[in-house]
Amino acid sequence: MDEIKIIDVKASIFSDNDREANELRNVLKKSGTFLMNLMSSPGSGKTTTLKALVPYLKGMRWSVMEADIDSEVDTRTMRQAGVETIQLHTGGMCHLDAEMTRQGLKEVGSDKYELVILENVGNLVCPAEFDTGAVKNVVILSVPEGDDKPLKYPLMFEKCDLLIVNKIDVMSCFDFDFDQLKENAALRNPEIEVIPVSAKTGEGMDRVAEWLFNEMKEWGKGE
Amino acid sequence: MDEIKIIDVKASIFSDNDREANELRNVLKKSGTFLMNLMSSPGSGKTTTLKALVPYLKGMRWSVMEADIDSEVDTRTMRQAGVETIQLHTGGMCHLDAEMTRQGLKEVGSDKYELVILENVGNLVCPAEFDTGAVKNVVILSVPEGDDKPLKYPLMFEKCDLLIVNKIDVMSCFDFDFDQLKENAALRNPEIEVIPVSAKTGEGMDRVAEWLFNEMKEWGKGE
Lengths: 223, 223
Description:
2 copies of one chain form a homodimer.
Chain A: E1 6-8, H1 17-31, E2 34-40, H2 46-53, E3 62-68, H3 73-80, E4 85-89, H4 98-108, E5 115-119, E6 136-142, H5 149-152, H6 154-159, E7 162-166, H7 178-188, E8 193-196, H8 205-221
Parallel strand pairs in A: 1-4, 2-5, 2-6, 3-4, 3-5, 6-7, 7-8
């Protein structure tokens, strides 16, 4: 196992995160790099979902940035799955802003890739407040967390384009109403797509891959 | 069902949260009110754990403050369980500070109670950064979240006195190593107590109640 270099990213000293995020999107557009921002609570299965995507992304030039407050557990996992991955540490911060994302992309050498996935810090609140420069935002909610989460954490569901409902293989162990979840999510964001998966068994991952390919294609066509 | 009044709490305009937290602890000490701060990720089972504590707290004068960004789902649940509960809204903020807690306690009329439990915003990062004025801090980690969380979210485990490991009834559905979790938690905080429970079935809740009674007794004796 090669040694994992830790990239310590620093929040922007400027106040205009939205402007920085738009600039970053322009830069990514020029190199044809699609940036996807993946968010969720701790333990919802962000890394396991990325691992389950690996077989669908064969032949694609892609890379992952793992953001954590501490540890390099997830980078180790992704590298074992054969994915080029770097580890960002946020110095205690609960989210990534556009400047931190830019620092990570520079380290990655993002212009080499068609797709870079940012796995954000596990947190259903703060990451939603900061545009990272991503083309699309995706949230994972896992079945054990409960179907009421869009009611309590509205901004995350407002900001995301896709809601992946993970751990459906353990649905029978929990009081989880999938239709109620869809209803709660639609209250926050009528446009949000919802795909149920089990990252563990692989069920539903074909639909996630299909969603991603479509979004990449649409974005490639765009002005 | 009586109407739920929403208390909008505002963050302190002063910078010295630690001083405000200490002052609040002094005030609570005078009225003999033990404040416990309960934290976890979204969906780890804070409210369900509090509900499971109800039978053990019969005869005690106690009250709950539910903090959320939005909704009053949890307050409704606790009131249905017969517990005096108020709902705090944080105006989008990801945590409570001492001043927000003080506003809540004032609304509760905390000097009437021996015990007030603050259910913090569901977030494993930011709430750990702010002393609320509580005598003891408790974190819940649920089995589906995984045993590696103390490695990724160090501060929460450093700051807490008790780690409740919830949802042990579904242990067999997940790759969760309880001994590994204890080891990871001890790395962050060798003093932390760890109690496995199922808030759903009630298993282990007697130990949580016993821990709480002991802490309240010790605190009552203290200078």
